[in-house]
């Protein structure tokens, strides 16, 4: 594995069906209960940046702005867009804050200038439409001072980050649904993946808990086969159900 000079502590967070799908064959992906959304936003609050792939942005058009109990005013939205497909009408681009960092592998000066005119920080790292994730993580740590990163997918980005040894934790909420087709939590576009258990990332269970909704299960694993140490120690408790139950209860009380 190539080693960056420095990198953030990175957590993958996904919500999936029982068969490990984060979206159906029709791209339907509304799986989270209110408690799971609170878990996601609490993790965003503990992080200094959130990272997604271009397909997630193009399909879901998220803002990635909502956080709970932010531990820092520093917060970036990061997109890995190897083919530079993002456009100015997307919420990430049209809503100026928090700032957006975009990593691409396409040298299109005209489009880069248009995005930068909208306040996007564009870095061209990689070639042939494939972003150099090691370099991207180094840029986040060294140029932006980001030490705590939350990765929200999709499955191809999750796979690429794991393959490069750049992920420290995987956290997945499993919901009581089955899609049987569609996008997976971790997905190799080349359909090869990790072919044996010895090739798989080495994982150690940190937490297994029932969601306060009573019908979902959340698991958290530490990845013990990373490329190199991160810039900081773990930034969120492994088990969060008690905390998110209290947060949702308080939100309900405040709305009445």
Automatic annotation (TrEMBL):
Q: Which pathway is this protein assigned to?
A: Cofactor biosynthesis; riboflavin biosynthesis
Report any one BP term from Gene Ontology.
riboflavin biosynthetic process
Bacterial bifunctional deaminase-reductase C-terminal domain residues:
8-216
Q: Which UniProt keywords apply?
A: NADP, Oxidoreductase
MF terms from GO for this chain are:
5-amino-6-(5-phosphoribosylamino)uracil reductase activity
Query: Could you tell me which InterPro entries the record lists for this protein?
Result: DHFR-like_dom_sf (IPR024072), RibDG_C (IPR002734), Riboflavin_Biosynth_HTPR (IPR050765)
One Pfam family name is: RibD_C
Instruction: Name the chain's protein.
Output: 2,5-diamino-6-(Ribosylamino)-4(3H)-pyrimidinone 5'-phosphate reductase
């Amino acid at each position: 594995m190539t080693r960056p000079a420095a990198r953030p502590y990175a957590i993958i967070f996904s919500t999936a069906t029982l068969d490990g799908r984060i979206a159906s064959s029709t791209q339907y992906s509304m799986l989270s209960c209110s408690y799971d959304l609170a878990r996601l936003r609490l993790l965003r609050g503990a992080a200094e940046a959130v990272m997604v792939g271009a397909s997630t942005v193009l399909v879901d058009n998220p803002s990635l702005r909502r956080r709970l109990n932010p531990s820092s005013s520093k917060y970036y939205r990061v997109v890995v867009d190897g083919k530079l497909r993002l456009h100015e009408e997307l919420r990430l681009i049209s809503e100026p804050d928090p700032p957006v960092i975009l990593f691409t592998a396409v040298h299109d000066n005209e489009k880069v200038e248009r995005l930068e005119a909208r306040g996007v920080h564009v870095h061209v790292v990689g070639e042939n439409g494939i972003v150099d994730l090691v370099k991207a993580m180094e840029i986040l740590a060294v140029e932006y001072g980001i030490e705590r990163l939350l990765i929200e997918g999709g499955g191809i980005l999750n796979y690429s980050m794991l393959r490069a040894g750049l992920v420290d934790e995987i956290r997945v909420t499993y919901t009581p649904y089955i899609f049987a087709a569609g996008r997976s939590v971790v997905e190799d576009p080349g359909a090869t993946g990790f072919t044996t258990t010895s090739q798989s990332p080495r994982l150690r269970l940190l937490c297994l808990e029932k969601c306060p909704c009573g019908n979902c299960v959340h698991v958290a694993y530490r990845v013990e086969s990373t490329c190199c140490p991160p810039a900081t120690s773990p930034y969120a408790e492994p088990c969060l159900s008690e905390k998110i139950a209290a947060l949702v209860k308080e939100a309900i009380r405040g709305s009445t």
